[in-house]
């Protein structure tokens, strides 16, 4: 149901409603219902004094559809006739006559526009959804890059596999994913693998292997940069390390550096997205015992100085129960908001902005 066509309650001003929906009033007015065409009284068009006669119109149409000119655009026909000393009408008139006969349009075989579904992935436990990507790593040699493959567990952010190679191809991708699935004993049909649409992720041999392992493949939409956010965020963390070299001297140096980084990231990095636990603690479930320790520590601090905690007894945070890529909840919320205009009051009470 279109919210702009819903009758607005008299208790809600137009300004407040548009502000709650993050909608400009200009857009609201512009998209109001306009009178239908049949409701508008027809205006009788007067004949134009300088218009082509009926005979002239037929002659131009015959010329445009002749064997000599039927495959040429009007502008080229016009220029050729003019060079021959002949003038029938303007280029725009030629187009207008062709439109009347529905003869204007693309005649070549064109690829239809592609519509790709939005990937919506939900992880509630480790080894349910993996996301992976490849990043270019510069070397001292100008124009030479290494390729860093990183596979990330979506729920825990744990790096389950990584590889550094001079090449980027589907053979290495197959090796990386198959070895990781075997190492963590992923059962058939239990894993969803999310990736971009690069050649190593869409090659026939790679997809055949994923089908054989019964791993469900999910792909980002073309030219959509935020469909693989967790892998991109991990690469950002990697390249913002204080000791990250701008360029690597050799493959061996790069492998040693990334080995140390993965060890730090998995076992020592207090990750903000998982309540400041390390990826390994969430991946293995050890975070539950640590959460109890944190909670007891906060309780003891509260009992010593309750006046320092203005919001009452503090509680240690837990990692999110579910992790999404493009959550469907946002769309459902906006749809429910569009169904019932009075829910604006509820949105304001909850601190939302529509």
| Poorly predicted regions | 333-354
Largest sheet: 5 strands, mixed
Overall pLDDT score: 87
Highest CATH level, the class of one domain: Alpha Beta
Query: CATH-wise, what's the superfamily of one domain?
Result: Ribonuclease H-like superfamily/Ribonuclease H
> Radius of gyration over alpha carbons?
32 Å
The name of the CATH topology of one domain is Nucleotidyltransferase, domain 5
Shape: extended
Query: How many strand segments?
Result: 7
Based on secondary structure, the structural category is alpha/beta
Helicity range of the residues?
40-55%
The helix/strand order is HHHHHEEEEHEHHEHHHHEHH
What is the count of helical runs? 14
Strand order of the largest sheet: 4-3-2-5-6
State the distance separating the first and last CA atoms: 16 Å
CATH architecture assignment of one domain: 2-Layer Sandwich
Strand content is: 5-15%
Tell me what the structure shows.
- The protein is an alpha/beta fold and 354 residues long.
- Among the domains are: 54-100; 121-274, Nucleotidyltransferase, domain 5 (2-Layer Sandwich), CATH 3.30.420.
- The chain has 14 helices and seven strands.
- The strands form two sheets. The protein has a five-stranded mixed beta sheet with strand order 4-3-2-5-6, sandwiched between helices.
- Strand 2 and strand 3 (145-153) form a beta hairpin.
- The protein is extended.
- Residues 333-354 have low confidence and may be disordered.
């Amino acid at each position: 149901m279109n919210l702009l066509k819903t009758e607005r309650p008299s208790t809600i001003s137009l300004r407040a409603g548009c502000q709650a929906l993050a909608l400009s009033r200009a857009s609201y007015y512009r998209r109001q219902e306009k009178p239908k065409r049949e409701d508008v009284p027809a205006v009788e068009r007067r004949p134009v004094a300088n218009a082509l006669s009926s005979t002239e119109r037929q002659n131009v149409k015959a010329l445009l559809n002749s064997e000599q000119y039927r495959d040429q655009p009007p502008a080229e026909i016009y220029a050729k006739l003019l060079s021959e000393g002949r003038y029938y009408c303007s280029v725009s008139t030629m187009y207008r006559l062709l439109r009347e006969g529905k003869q204007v349009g693309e005649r070549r075989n064109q690829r239809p526009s592609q519509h790709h579904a939005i990937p919506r992935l939900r992880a509630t436990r480790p080894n349910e959804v993996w996301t992976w990507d490849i990043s270019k790593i510069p070397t001292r040699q100008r124009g030479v890059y290494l390729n860093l493959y990183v596979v990330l567990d979506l729920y825990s952010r744990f790096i389950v596999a990584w590889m550094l190679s001079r090449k980027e191809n589907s053979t290495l991708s197959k090796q990386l994913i198959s070895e990781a699935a075997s190492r963590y004993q992923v059962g058939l049909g239990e894993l969803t693998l999310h990736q971009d649409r690069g050649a190593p992720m869409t090659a026939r041999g790679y997809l055949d292997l994923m089908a054989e392992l019964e791993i469900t493949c999910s792909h980002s939409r073309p030219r959509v940069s935020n469909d693989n956010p967790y892998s991109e965020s991990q690469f950002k963390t990697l390249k913002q390390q204080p000791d990250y070299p701008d360029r690597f001297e050799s493959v061996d140096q790069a492998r040693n550096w990334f080995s140390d980084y993965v060890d730090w990231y998995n076992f020592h990095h207090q990750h903000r997205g998982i309540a400041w636990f390390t990826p390994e603690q969430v991946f293995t479930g050890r975070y539950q015992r640590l959460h109890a320790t944190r909670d007891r520590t906060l309780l003891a601090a509260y009992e010593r100085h309750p006046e320092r905690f203005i919001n009452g007894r503090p509680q240690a945070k837990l990692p999110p129960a579910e992790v999404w890529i493009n959550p469907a909840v946002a769309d459902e919320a906006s749809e429910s908001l569009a169904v019932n205009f009075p829910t604006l009051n509820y949105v304001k009470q909850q601190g939302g902005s529509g």
